[in-house]
Predict the structure.
Amino acid sequence: MCGHIHSSTYFHSKGGEKYMEEKEFLTPSSTSATSKMERKIEVMPQITDLPQSYGDTKIVLLPRDPWWCFAYWEIGEQTLQQIRNLYGDNVQYLIRVYDVTNVEDFNGHNANRYFDIYINLEAKNWYINLPEVNRSWCVDLGIKASDGKFVTIVRSNIVLMPRFGVSPLTDAQWAVLQREFERLLELSGVSMIGKGSFDIAKLMKERWEELLAISQQPQFISSGFVSSLAKKEQPKEQEFYLKADTELIVYGETMPNAKLYIGGEEYKLSFDGRFSLRMLLPDGEKVIPIKAVSADGTMEKQITFVVTRKSERK
Amino acid sequence: MPEGYWCLVLHNHLPFVKHPEYDDFLEEDWFYEAITETYIPLIAVLEGLLRDNIDFRITLSLTPPLCNMMEDKLLQDRYYKRLLKLIELAEKEVWRLHGQEPFFTTAKMYRDKFKLVMQIYEKYNRNLLNAYKSLLETGKVEIITCNATHGFLPLISSDRVRRAQIRMAVKDYESKFGKKPKGMWLAECAYTYGLDKILKECEIQYFFVEAHGILYGEPRPRYGVFAPVYTPNGVAVFGRDMETAHQVWSADVGYPGDPNYREFYRDVGYDLEYEYIKPYLHSDGARRNIGIKYYRVTGRVGLDKKEPYVPQWAQEKAAEHAGNFMFNREHQIRYLRNIFDREPIVVSMYDAELFGHWWFEGPDFLNFLFRKIQYDQNVFKPILPTEYLEKYPKNQVLQPTASSWGDKGYFEVWLNGCNDWIYRHLHKCEELMCSAVDTYHQSVISGDELKRRVLNQLARELFLAQSSDWAFIMTTQTHVEYAHRRTKEHVSNFLRLYHQLKENSIDTNFLSWLEFKNSIFPQMDYTIFL
């Protein structure tokens, strides 16, 4: 990354674990007197890689945004052994995602609905795309037994997702006319929500990259961030990498009282008839039929998207 | 009677970076540069406004890590030496450029600015908290705090640990300003359900959220973001006005991109002859930004095509932009007043470091702006959050949505493929912290001082690991190795110390070293976790 004053000990050691090795340290003669420091060689703690696991059996669910959750897990060695003993070596692991909105005392059987995601246990974490916004979710890490029965290994916390969209609820005491409210939303910048962050580091980085792109003379290479942005041409022993993926956002609007179906599943419209759905887009062809049916069931419109993703790696 | 109010909030924050184990450490520059370019120039502007009896109002959030660095003797002395060197270079530059306009005028400008910075730094005894304390007493400047180490509260595993972050902030503020904070800036404006209850317990009267925190709240907000609301637990919330955010930040229409303003990326650290500039670089001798820059933005041209900076043009532009900003507020506020049954409040929230560090003329802009507001219009007045709440104590009650002011408006900046690995470790430390406090609190009460020290240091290491800055940096890809290192360092310190505590084999050398190095919160009291 940036030119760093301790490149000989830090940046030239792989992964950075040896940062503090073989280095002279200043050690305080007391904990407060910074002025009277004596220089001596101290065997200071090395910063080691963090534990791969903590021997727990748990799964934790975290919200990322209104459409996505993140789950991480680990299973203790003993539990894993028990599973192998009971169900054999080739069990199928999965996470079951429960919609527990307004469910009191969720017990595994009283969810509003659920869906399953088959996982590789070694993945250790997963981003879960949720089918609907403004709901509460809980996940089980479990296995599918040979008879097809789902067996829970461990259950997560419950997450109430960050809200998306304007609430349909109005407050009698603070009522506001629909038209006036829409104008107010506009004035409040509702159209700018989520459109690019106003954050300094990002702004500086973007501007720097633009400048680099249009600058002719490399000797003017300068740097930024809150103090100094990365110098791109620093030699580095880290393996070169590229990661990329795609997501798809399907959005639109219909009559607010219509019923909307995406891929055959009913999708709840926002109060003003808008809808927005964000999904992973893996390689291959994806067919997304969108159908709106009028409230009285007499009229119907359909739009179908066929999206193809093809990855080429070089 | 004004038709409405404008509330300016500047969030001042840097992570706790202190490396006594090295004579010279690059990442400490974040702090030093911010003092020279932002903190002291803003203090100078505010003092000038006070001197001239301008009736301004400004809310500053000063985070605990920043306050702790400002109070740290080692960093104070290191900054002093840095500033001396900078003044030395600026003096040399005045000689080098003698008579060569417009560079000569710019060189004199830097020399005078740096000397003023030194004068203010010395006046406050090298401790900028002294400056903020006297500003606070004027009643025109409100200083609020921020949760402990700027931890990203929604991704902390339990309310108990969130509560400790918030209690720590209150404690820290009290020790520095001698009273309780009225408001709190939630790190990254990140709100999640239930936080308001903790804030209420800690007697925090108000906090801020991104616009959709209120717009997507439940039920619908009667006044949009132009009036505070109360959470179900009775804490006031102010929402960010997007129009003013956009006006300053936008890459296309924002002020800082004006061709007359100073170009950040043409620095003498790269432009001047190596031997001449070498004494002012870090000990590794690598070229990097020093803080003296002679060119202006010019336009969308390459760095080699930049034209010289002319201080007077930039000043004129800053005054013009201040006038434009005021004009837009007059319109906005007058319009809102017409459709409301009360005076609206427009809340503009920015990172303080935008002013001065990135937008060099930013402090001048604020200076012009507050003066113009006083003399050139009577549509609106600047206000503090508490003043508005006193005027309008009755507000709508709504549940704000969980949100942040980061990219896309929720938590993705702090939870994505670049940084999601940290949470399993942070959560484990959070769990162990609570269990250690539960297990050993009794022995501390019975007089075990060593265990008290261990519990306190465990809390410091946990808090430092929780700083949202590390996850943020991993996402922006700017100082990734440093962010990884800091996360690993504090987690492994924590685990090692916890293990020693549990095995009853405390290594006092190790403990003393950590107390010295990771010295944030000298008044730490682990009972905030009870």
Chain A touches chain B through 101 residues (CB under 8 Å). Residues 1-43, 218-236 of chain A have pLDDT under 50 and may be disordered. The longest strand of chain A covers residues 284-293.
